[in-house]
Amino acid sequence: MSKKINDKIFWVGKTDWELKKFHGDEFTTTKGSSYNSYLIKDEKTVLIDTVWLPYDREFVKDLKKEIDLNKIDYIIIQHGEVDHSGALVELMSEIPDTPIYCTANAIKSIKGQYHKDWNFIPVKTGDKLNIGENTLTFIEAPMLHWPDTMFTYMDKEEILFSNDGFGQHLASEYLYADEVDQADLYNQALIYYANILAPFGMMVKNKINEILKMNLPIKMICPSHGLIWRKGPTQIVNKYLEWADNYQENQITIVYDTMWNSTRKMAEAIAKGIKNVDDTVQVKLMNTSKDDKTDVLTEVFKSKIILVGSPTVNNGYLHSIAGILEMIRGMKLKSKKAAAFGSYGWSGESIKLITEELKKSGFEILNDGIRVEWTPGKEMENNCIQFGENIAK
């Protein structure tokens, strides 16, 4: 069912209430999501983006209720990933000659995924498409979050269609960001940024500054996931500039896994030591074998310091820690500090190996870490408390 944004623009996407995993199993979407597609009815009719592949037939069927498909003059695909381009095969089987406007890199990705040679029109930043009362201006946005991404600006309506920029994985019966709980909205926007866009912080900042220099008046930002920014839309732009600038809160996150609870006891003692020195700092303990990895990465993104702990297993560390360390490395975080800890029975290499991985990931290493043989007794528990106090200091 379409939703009217104004006299010329209609939302024709899909709200996916059931979505719980995204990007395979990489991203947990507890609140679902939406795949936002927009239909513009000016003198020319334009479709911006489609929906995820499982909903291709439903999308085309519903679109036919809104418009005769043969009256669509142009299709704009802002990003070739399947959650935006997934309905193209079904749609183009009905209107095969309709021109598709996208970046040169998007042509590569779309051809590579669907093996179709449709009527592609490559565009770059500054190229324009006149559709009647309005002119659409294309703005390349590479690595927000694929090399093929672009935004589209509609001049008279002063709307920025921002694809994966400024979105949230948040299913809602509402259309606009100002209609939902603001704390939940911004939490979902932060989770989205931390898990998808954090590795590209410098490019995010540069692209936003480039757009700001274009002096484009913006009344509305229409992303491809989640809710539309209608009231004070630049509030999310300002948040992105903040998040892209080596973001950190007054938070220390302790990330660990444990076999027989020795490393857990260390984590709790370290947390106690931190709070002994600074009760204002927020301390979060995240067990990587029990807590969701999307939540773990979000807390890591928010932190100024992370402490990573694992027992030594087969001269290494537990696989959940290995996985989260690999994901943390991919975030390319800067200006954050870290240290390692862990228990062992025989050889005790995990602390050194974790420290090496944290160093490779760009963290400033605070110390050599702390390790406990077997289960911490009173003396070693006090040593862990002292370790936490030293970290806080």
Describe this structure in a few short sentences:
By secondary structure, the chain is α/β, with parallel strands linked by helices. It is built from twelve helices and 22 strands. The chain folds into two domains: 3-243, Metallo-beta-lactamase, Chain A (4-Layer Sandwich); 252-392, Rossmann fold.
Keywords:
393 residues; alpha/beta; Metallo-beta-lactamase, Chain A; Rossmann fold; 2 domains; 7-stranded mixed sheet; 6-stranded parallel sheet; 12 helices; 22 strands; elongated
Describe the 3D structure.
- The termini are far apart.
- The protein has twelve helices and 22 strands.
- The strands form five sheets. Strands 1-2-7-8-9-10-11 form a seven-stranded mixed beta sheet. Strands 17, 18, 19, 20, 21 and 22 form a six-stranded parallel beta sheet that branches. The chain has a five-stranded mixed beta sheet with strand order 12-13-14-15-16, with no helix packed on it.
- Helix 5 crosses helix 9 (293-302) and helix 8 (262-277) packs across helix 12 (378-392).
- The model has no long low-confidence stretch (mean pLDDT 97).
- Helix content is 34%, strand content 22%.
- The chain folds into two domains: 3-243, Metallo-beta-lactamase, Chain A (4-Layer Sandwich), CATH 3.60.15.10; 252-392, Flavodoxin domain (Rossmann fold, 3-Layer(aba) Sandwich), CATH 3.40.50.360.
- By secondary structure, it is of the alpha/beta class.
